[in-house]
Amino acid sequence: MADPRTILRDLDRLDTPVSWSDVRRRTPGPPPPEPRRTGRLLGIGVAFAIAAAGILLLVRAFVLSPGGPTNRGPISVPAPPTPLSFTSPNTPWTFEYPSGWSVATTRRADPSFMANMLRTVVANGPLPDRAGDFGPNSGGDSELTSALGDSGAVVLVERFWVHAAGIGGEPRGPGPFARDAQSPGWTFRERARCEGTLCFHVIEWLGPKVSDEDRAAAAATAASVRLADVERWTETDGERTTLHDEDDLFTVTYPAAWIPSDRPINTWVSSPREILALATYPLRPGGEAVTDFQLPGNAVEDLGPDDILIWVSEAGTGDGFPARPEHLEPSEPCDEWSRLCPEPTGQAVGVPGIRAWWLGFRDAGRGIYVFVGMGERAYADPARAQLAWDVLDSLRFGPR
Questions:
Q1: Which of the residues 36, 121, 138, 337 has an alpha carbon 20 to 30 A from that of 74?
Q2: Is residue 76 in some structural domain?
C-alpha cells in the first residue's frame, strides 16, 4: 500500500485550475509533434509509419466492409461544464459552480452556541437534509460523505462568529491537502478570504475516488468565491447583531432589538454625510434641525424616556479631529477639538428634554462625528446607558 504521505504530496502537485476559464480550456486535443532528433530516429519513424499504414488499410477495409462496424465519423468529446452563478439574499457571497451540482445554505445562530455559523454547501451529488451540519473532521461516516460516496466532491463556503463578532480575519491559502481524520480516504484543503468587512473560509473536500474532472471543478468553484454585490448585511445570534456596511466600510454591533435606519434620517445635508442612524425605536427621517449640527427633529421628537439614539456622520480625512480613544464614554471635544474631555451630565449640548453628547474623532484616516441621545430613565439606569457607549466601542472602520 502506498505511503499516505506520498499520496497527499502527489495531491498537492496536481495541476488543478484556478478559475473556470482554465477548466474550459482543458479540452482534449492532439499532442504536439515531436521534433526530429537524429537521422536514426527518422529512419525508425519511417519504418513504423509504413507498417502503420498497412495496418490502417486493413482496418479501413474491415470498417467499410458490409460485415464490419458502421463508420460513425470522429469520436465526439464531451464539452467542458458550463458554470452557474450562485447568489442569494441570505448570504453575502457569490461564486460559480458546475451545472448539475447541488447547493444548500444553512444558518445556525443562537446566544447559547459557542460559535454561530453561516454555510453554503456545493456538492457533485444529492445533498441530505442535514448537509450543512457536516464538514472535514466533523464525525465518522457522516450523512454527507455517505450520501456522496467515495467519488464525492464538496466545496464549503462558511463564516463563523461568536456573539456577532467574526472569527478569523486574515486571508490565506489555499493550503495543502490534509487527511480527514474522521472520514477515511477523504482529503481537504482550506483558504480564507477577506473582502470589505467580510472574512470567510472556503474548503475543498474530496473523496478518495473523486474524478479529475470533479476535482478540477471543485478547485475552480472555490477560487471563484467573492463578496456579493451587497450594500449592507447583518449576522446575529439573537442577542446581538452586527451590521456590515460594504459601501461606507464599517461594522457595528448592537442589541438585537435595536433598529438601524435603512435610509438617512437627515434628508437635507450631504456634508458631513450620515452613515449610521441606530436607535431603540423606529426612526422617522426628516424634521427641523434641532441644533447647529443638523440633528433631525423627527428622531428627537420620537425619543422616549427609555430610548437611546446614535447618529454617526463622516467628514473628510479627519484632519483636526482628536484621535479615537481606546474606549468611548460620555465626553465632548475640548481644547479646540484637539482632544475629548469627560462630560458625564449630557447637558452641554442643550437638546431640550433629553441627555445628549456631540463628539468626534479620527479613525482609519476618516473624520467621524457622533451624536448620542437618551431619555431620562435610560440615563438614570447605568447599565442601559452604558449600552450606547458599548455600541460605539464596537464600531470598526475600514480606510476609504
A1: 36
A2: no
Residue 313 falls within a domain, yes or no? yes
Look at 28-37, 120-129, 190-199 and tell me which has the smallest mean pLDDT. Answer: 28-37
Q: How far apart are CA 99 and CA 86, in angstroms?
A: 11
Alpha helix stretches (DSSP H) within 277-395:
297-301, 376-380, 382-394
pTM: predicted TM-score of the whole model, two decimal places: 0.73
pLDDT digits (tens, 9 = 90+) for 137-192: 876 557 889 899 999 999 999 999 887 677 767 888 898 999 998 888 999 999 99
Residue with cell 437638546: 351
Q: Which three cell numbers stand for residue 257?
A: 432589538
State how far the Cα of 77 lies from the Cα of 17, in Å rounded to an integer: 20
Structural domain range at position 178: 44-56+84-229
Q: Is position 14 within any domain? A: no
Q: Are 283 and 187 contained in the same domain?
A: no
Domain boundary among 229, 263, 294: 229
